[in-house]
Amino acid sequence: MRCLPSFLLCTLFLVAPHCTEVAAQEVQPDPKIPCANWMGGAPGYPGHNGLPGRDGKDGQDGLKGEKGEKGVQGPKGDQGEVGIPGQDGPRGFPGQPGQKGESVFIYRSAFSVGLTERAPPPNVPIRFSKIFYNEQSHYDTSTGKFLCNIPGTYYFAYHLTVYLMDVKVSLYKKDKAVIFTYDQFQNNNVDQASGSVLLHLSSGDEVWLQVYGEEGKNGVYADNINDSTFMGFLLYPDLDVH
Q1: Signal sequence: where (predicted)?
Q2: In whole angstroms, what is the distance from residue 67 CA to residue 73 CA?
Q3: Could you read off the pLDDT of 104-148 as tens digits, one per residue?
């Protein structure tokens, strides 16, 4: 009886490896599940999302794409602010001379008259009634006076035939003698007396000729072959007035 336990123990040692090998061949536990087939629990919940990874390095530029179609024109934008003036450019070449223009208004005042009567009376304006030019009618044949209508600078001149006696004549402006001319008559001869002057006149001023002094100084003469003349014209007007 003492040998029976020993026999059973030996048999157990011999049979155990064989049974273990057979069991290993029949059932292979899932390596993902600990203690497979005998201690496997319920599946767990999915874990939380992990943190985003860091940005990767920029890749290489791709090939240039084809040109796209022209888009629709957009609305006109608001006008921008005026910019700062630029620097002056280089000076250009002189241009071609322009054509001479006409004055907007031409100032005209002129007269030229002659004597028709012999020996005009002294100390009154000599009335020259023969008209050579008086287009503006600034010389009055009825009074023998020139009336200034355009302020400015005027030129006056006279050329008188002297016959039978001496002549002393003067040119007046506004009742004041401006110049005098004296010619002494020579017997059996026809002489000439003349004078000229530049005067500045204001509108309304009058200019005339008259024999100065007594009757014996009145040799002014005119006939069909001898003339005594008086003339005047505007040189230039006062533009600051007109």
Answers
A1: 1-24
A2: 17
A3: 568 999 999 999 877 778 888 999 999 999 999 999 999 999 999
